[in-house]
Specification:
The chain is an alpha+beta fold. Helix content is 43%, strand content 17%. Strands 3, 4, 5, 6, 7, 8 and 9 form a seven-stranded mixed β-sheet that branches. Strands 1-2 form a two-stranded parallel sheet. The longest helix is centred in the N-terminal third of the chain and has 18 residues, at 82-99. It is globular and about 65 Å long.
């Protein structure tokens, strides 16, 4: 998120430049409004992603929310915090989007693992799939002293996937309280409901997320491992893929590892099934791999490119997010869509 940090949800821009831009924006200066909201844009984008499960949807939601805010700025009139007001507009924008479509999912949410390699595993267009999040703008640490989750923890795949099981209003309440540190009374005003309703929604949301998300976050695992070890694990996976070394890849995995590939519905669980899949598909059917190490959802990730042979151009194929347990890979989620690559600052082809 933005390097501009607040002390809580009620914090608002305090510099003379901010005050001048606010006056200018209220007088109709759109350039002043753009400068005013720029420091808050990254955290608003992360919040919209958490609600919607798609960076592309988050792009649209932030654009729409800021347009609504600009058109309705006269209604703000400096009452309270600009940040809180923008979160109000962004929340309402995202809830409108949530009402218009079903939840986003990962293959593991939709059915049991396949007991054999499925070669005709075709993309499912009937599902709204969760997408990876480029986390370069994320800050570290909690958003406020009252937040339960760190900012990177709040975009981890397991957490965002768990959020998608909640109704839209419960997602918003959980994020506003546990990630951003808003008070129940503020959220009640934001959603046009009672404090009792907010507290009830929060309790239900916490129960479900506790059931769906792992007890130990990836951030805790990554802190224990350290940057050098994390990079070595990710580089080991990338190197094994490029060398078509199935045994080296298997050595990196836990016994209960899972591998899923949205938008393909079939997925694999357990070392024997995952090893068979690895030998058959990425090591067997893909002639040549090139890789780039990246970070997605606050986790190590590898961008994979496929070519007809080692000397041919390699086209963008998948962003694979690695979920670690100890110093092994417990989950691989390969997002098979070249449209994800530009948001990570990656080209769609390697010459």
């Amino acid at each position: 998120m933005s390097s501009t940090r607040s002390t809580g949800p009620g914090a608002s821009p305090g510099s003379r430049a901010d005050s001048a831009d606010l006056r200018g924006a209220l007088d109709g200066d759109d350039a002043a409004f753009t400068r005013l909201v720029a420091p808050l844009r990254p955290e608003l984008h992360a919040y919209c992603y958490q609600l919607l499960g798609s960076p592309h949807d988050a792009d649209d939601a932030v654009q729409d929310a800021l347009l609504r805010a600009w058109r309705g700025l006269a209604g703000f009139e400096g009452r309270g915090s600009l940040r809180s007001w923008l979160y109000t507009v962004a929340t309402r924008t995202c809830l409108d989007i949530v009402k218009g479509r079903g939840r986003r999912a990962l293959p593991v949410d939709l059915g049991p693992a396949s007991d054999r390699v499925v070669l005709d595993n075709r993309p499912s267009t009937e599902v709204g799939w969760l997408s990876p999040y480029p986390d370069g703008d994320l800050g570290t640490g909690p958003a406020s002293p009252h937040a339960r989750y760190e900012r990177r923890e709040a975009v981890e795949l397991a957490f965002v996937a768990a959020l998608q099981h909640l109704p839209g209003n419960q997602r918003a309440v959980l994020l506003l309280v546990d990630v951003l540190g808003f008070a129940a009374a503020e959220i009640a005003d934001l959603l046009g409901t009672s404090v009792a309703s907010v507290n009830s929604a929060l309790a239900r949301a916490r129960r479900l997320v506790a059931e769906k998300a792992p007890a130990a976050s990836q951030q805790r695992t990554l802190r224990l491992l350290g940057d050098d070890r994390i990079r070595k694990i990710a580089a080991g996976y990338a190197d094994a893929l490029e060398r078509h070394d199935t045994e080296a890849l298997i050595a990196l995995l836990t016994e209960d590892v899972t591998w899923s590939m949205p938008p393909l519905p079939h997925w694999y669980s357990g070392l024997p099934s995952v090893a068979e899949f690895a030998r058959t598909v990425p090591m067997g059917l893909c002639p040549s791999w090139r890789t780039r190490l990246v970070s997605a959802n606050g986790q190590p990730a590898v961008a994979g490119y496929v070519g007809a042979d080692a000397t041919a151009p390699h086209v963008a194929w998948a962003i694979t997010v690695l979920t670690l347990r100890g110093d092994r890979i417990a989950g691989l989620t390969s997002f098979l869509d070249a449209t994800h690559f530009p948001s990570f600052g990656l080209p769609n082809m390697l010459p």
